[in-house]
């Protein structure tokens, strides 16, 4: 590079953040030894801010879009001439970090490890995962610049995810443990959980220099062990419901199922067991029960047959016992 080109470089007139990337929070402007001359201009586009440092100290924070004059001790031509023998570098170093003032939307999040708490209704441990998105905006740029950025040339919003997830899991776990939502109530209270999670997350982001604009939960899931427990409970609840329809208690329903299984496994001997089961049903569905009339009893018996709890022969035997 000749002396003419070097002088032109020293007289750079405009400094701006060109082609900011999606989710980029900070970008350091670099230009041949970080020499920013008196004649230089700073342009900030809408939604951008800028931190100006001089010899390692923050000298100014620009928060409004527009055109700014930058004043340093680097007088263009004198600095160039003095530094010809020193690779055209100046000891008066300045730094310019652009940052994003606009909202950053739809940052993805997901629990790295399950959130654990005891189901308040069934008293078994629940392992819950969640995922969704959140939106943030930087509000204390100086705090973040000094305490987190610490001189990095670039910083992206996804780098906040680890900080966020490591700090928010415990407050969410505590909230779910105290909210007393059973596993079956999670989906119906998803908006409430998201709102409370956002409230409990505000201080986490404020400590980092950001405001949390919104927080959304898009879906939840349980681990395999929790799902197995849920399936076992669902099966028992289905049996209890079926026993109420049949007009028998749960113990009698379990006895009936056991006899049915025995009948299937014992061949011809099972036929007599099946007949006995039908007779047992008819005895339990009798005028002394809580069923109001014969029509109701027959209807309940039909439902048992339709649900496969008794076979056709058992249905006919029980029906015959009920009819005069």
Automatic annotation (TrEMBL):
Query: From what superkingdom does this record's organism come?
Result: Bacteria
Tell me one Pfam family matched here: Band_7_1
Tell me which residues make up the SHOCT domain.
297-323
The record's section on InterPro entries has: SHOCT (IPR018649), SPFH_YdjI (IPR033880)
Q: Which residues form the SPFH domain?
A: 27-235
Q: What is this protein called?
A: SPFH domain-containing protein
Which species expresses this protein natively?
Candidatus Chryseobacterium massiliense
């Amino acid at each position: 590079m000749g002396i003419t080109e070097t002088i032109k470089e020293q007289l750079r007139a405009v400094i701006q953040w060109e082609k900011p990337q999606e989710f980029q929070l900070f970008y350091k402007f670099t230009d041949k030894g970080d020499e920013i001359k008196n004649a230089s201009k700073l342009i900030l586009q809408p939604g951008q801010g800028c931190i100006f440092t001089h010899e390692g100290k923050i000298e100014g924070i620009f928060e409004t879009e527009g055109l700014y004059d930058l004043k340093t001790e680097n007088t263009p031509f004198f600095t160039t001439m003095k530094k010809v023998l020193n690779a055209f570098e100046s000891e008066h170093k300045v730094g310019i970090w652009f940052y994003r003032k606009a909202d950053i939307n739809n940052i993805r999040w997901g629990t790295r490890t399950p959130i654990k708490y005891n189901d308040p209704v069934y008293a078994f441990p629940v392992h819950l995962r969640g995922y969704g998105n959140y939106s943030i905006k930087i509000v204390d740029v100086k705090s973040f610049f000094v305490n987190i950025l610490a001189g990095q040339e670039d910083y992206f919003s996804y780098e906040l995810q680890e900080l966020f997830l490591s700090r928010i899991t415990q407050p969410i776990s505590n909230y779910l443990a105290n909210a007393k939502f059973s596993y079956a109530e999670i989906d119906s209270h998803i908006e409430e959980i998201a709102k409370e999670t956002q409230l409990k997350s505000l201080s986490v982001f404020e400590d980092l220099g950001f405001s949390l604009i919104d927080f959304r939960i898009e879906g939840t899931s349980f681990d395999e062990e929790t799902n197995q427990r849920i399936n076992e409970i669902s099966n028992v609840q289905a049996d209890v419901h079926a026993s109420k329809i049949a007009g028998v208690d749960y113990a009698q329903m379990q006895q009936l199922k056991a006899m049915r299984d025995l009948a299937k496994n014992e061949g011809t001997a099972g036929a007599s067991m099946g007949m006995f089961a039908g007779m047992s049903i008819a005895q339990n569905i009798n005028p002394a029960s809580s069923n109001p009339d014969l029509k109701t009893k027959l209807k309940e018996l039909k439902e048992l047959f339709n649900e496969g709890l008794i076979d056709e022969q058992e249905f006919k035997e029980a029906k015959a016992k009920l009819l005069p």
